[in-house]
């Protein structure tokens, strides 16, 4: 399911992310929230690093001028954030940026939920503590299915909402939603 859930040919909107965890987590959560990413042709694209995300953003923007793009950056990507903000400032109807203000994508999760998921993933042996948190793709997949809808990090909810907003049927985005 997780490979097919993000298999979107010719997307209308790309959500650029820095890593595999985001690439796996976001489509699952969108599905759980009944956000129709497939129907709206919204694809999560793993750029694999903050520097490559900036490069991918600029490249996709030039190659596909009608493509809507939402970027998700971790807090250590200050330069990339500033560069993208300069480009999108007058184009909020097409481009958006979500910036995790503290830490990385994995840090956006409530620690109790994370530890609970970890202990479920590794039931044998001693109890897992905060320092043992596994930030792999398996963790992202597991937490995407286990996390309560009310505990979804606000940045992730915002990414999903922006993807849906930018792909609405209307050619105009209401000013109060910009």
Explain this structure to me?
- With 178 residues, the chain is of the alpha/beta class.
- The protein has one domain: Rossmann fold (3-Layer(aba) Sandwich).
- It has seven helices and four strands; from the N terminus they run βααβαβαβααα.
- The longest helix is centred in the first third of the chain and has 14 residues.
- The chain is globular, with a radius of gyration of 16 Å.
- The mean pLDDT is 86.
- This is OLD protein-like TOPRIM domain-containing protein.
What is the molecular shape? globular
Q: Identify the CATH class.
A: Alpha Beta
Q: What would you say the CATH architecture is?
A: 3-Layer(aba) Sandwich
Give helix and strand order, one letter per element, not per position.
Answer: EHHEHEHEHHH
Class inferred from helices and paired strands: alpha/beta
Gyration radius from CA atoms, angstroms: 16 Å
Biggest β-sheet, characterized? 4 strands, parallel
Percent strand: 5-15%
N-to-C CA distance: 33 Å
Sheet with most strands: strand arrangement: 2-1-3-4
Low-pLDDT runs of 5+ residues are none
Count of individual beta strands: 4
How many structural domains can be distinguished in the coordinates? 1
Overall pLDDT metric? 86
Helical percentage: 40-55%
Looking at CATH, which topology would you report?
Answer: Rossmann fold
How many separate helices?
7
Domain OLD protein-like TOPRIM: 13-76
Protein name: OLD protein-like TOPRIM domain-containing protein
Organism: Aeromonas salmonicida (strain A449)
């Amino acid at each position: 399911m997780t490979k097919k859930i993000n298999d979107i040919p010719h997307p209308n909107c790309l959500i650029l992310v820095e890593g595999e965890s985001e690439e796996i987590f976001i489509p699952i959560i969108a599905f759980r929230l009944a956000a129709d990413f497939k129907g709206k042709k919204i694809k999560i694209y793993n750029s694999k690093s903050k520097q490559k995300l900036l490069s991918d953003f600029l490249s996709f923007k030039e190659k596909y001028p009608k493509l809507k793009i939402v970027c998700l950056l971790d807090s250590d990507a200050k330069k990339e954030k500033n560069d993208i903000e300069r480009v999108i400032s007058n184009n909020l109807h097409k481009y958006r940026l979500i910036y995790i203000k503290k830490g990385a994508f994995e840090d956006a999760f409530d620690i109790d939920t994370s530890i609970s998921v970890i202990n479920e993933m590794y039931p044998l042996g001693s109890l897992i503590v905060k320092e043992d948190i596994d930030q792999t793709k398996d963790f992202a997949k597991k937490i995407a299915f286990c996390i309560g809808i009310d505990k979804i990090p606000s940045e992730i909810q915002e990414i999903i909402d922006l993807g849906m907003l930018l792909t609405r049927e209307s050619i105009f985005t209401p000013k109060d939603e910009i």
